[in-house]
Amino acid sequence: MKIKISIISLVCVLITLAGCGEVRTTGVATVGGNEIDLSDAAIWTHGPETQLFMQKSIADTMALIPEDATDIQEKKIWIDASKKFCSSMKLSAKDWLGEVDQVIMSDDGSVSLDVQIDSTDNEVQDSKISKKFEDMALALKKGDLVIFSGTFKKGKRKENQCLETTDFDSKPEFTNQGLVFNFSALAEIPIKSTEKE
Q1: pLDDT digits (tens, 9 = 90+) for 149-164
Q2: Which of 86, 110, 161, 175 is deepest in the core (most CB within 10 A)?
């Protein structure tokens, strides 16, 4: 998919992918005893340093893609960025923040969970979450916020893929990806409404 950076989308990138133009969960979230006003930015912009590093790397790369770039030029930019990103990216995630996209139960009873982690539609996707998280996951709805830890799976580095995705095609582009993930900790983030009664 070709990415073109308009003035509006570039502004979104420059404010650290805060969720421009998206209708997100609103209210006040409580994380680690701290209150986060979700009217200012999406929950993932308040994540730990490793999560913010991923967001900044993607934003910096998108800002390098000219408006008139060809598909090949764009791919080259992502390949160069991927090499740099791969050398710094850790396979573990601790206390990342995200928004539930979907929870699915298969016919065999296994439960999968997809959680969006940034404003470029990247998600962590665990196709078979641990039994200890199943009851909680089944109570989650699209738009609920979670704090989680776990591990990514290393991608095919010879194809410039940092992290393994659920896509059949390995590619260096790092937007709109389902990232293979294994949750080791998962908890819903409480939200307090800011609407006056």
Answers
A1: 999 999 888 888 888 9
A2: 161
Nearest to 31 by CA among 193, 194, 196, 191: 191
For 170, the token pair is 């390995």
Q: Name which of 136, 128, 137 is nearest 109 in CA terms.
A: 128
CATH 2.40.50.140 fits 7-192, yes or no: yes
Percentage of the chain exceeding pLDDT 90: 64
Distance CA 90, CA 97 (A): 16
pTM of the model: 0.84
- The tokens describing 5, both together, are 């950076």
Position 35: which residue type?
A: E
The pairing of strands 123-126 and 34-37 is unpaired
Under 8 Å CB-to-CB from 195, ≥6 apart: which residues? none
CB 148 within 8 A of CB 185: yes
